[in-house]
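Exercise 7. Predict the structure of HNH endonuclease from Novosphingobium silvae.
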Amino acid sequence: MARKHSKHGSYDDMPAEDEPETPPPPCWLCGRSTGKTIVWHHPVPKSRGGRDVVPMHSICQQTLIANFTNSELQRHGMDVEGLLADPNVRKFVDWVANKDPDFTATITKKRR
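Solution. The predicted structure, encoded as tokens:
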């Protein structure tokens, strides 16, 4: 039997076609616009008690994961400048600065 009312709400909540969209938030690490795909990253890993999330590019998140352990990310917390002090991360951010917001590339494996 069909339902009389949708459990997900009506289409009245949808934005109209002519309404301007809000611009995407900037990436937490590199500062570029995030584009179509936004990754919500935990600066302090969830396994270490992190609850806050920040918008990032997937390539920027992969770079952080490849260059830092969870313990190191916990120590840095929300301090972007501390992360950018690492030469590998700084080199990456300088390289990706002029790329398209939806640019993706393969990132090297995690250093051990």
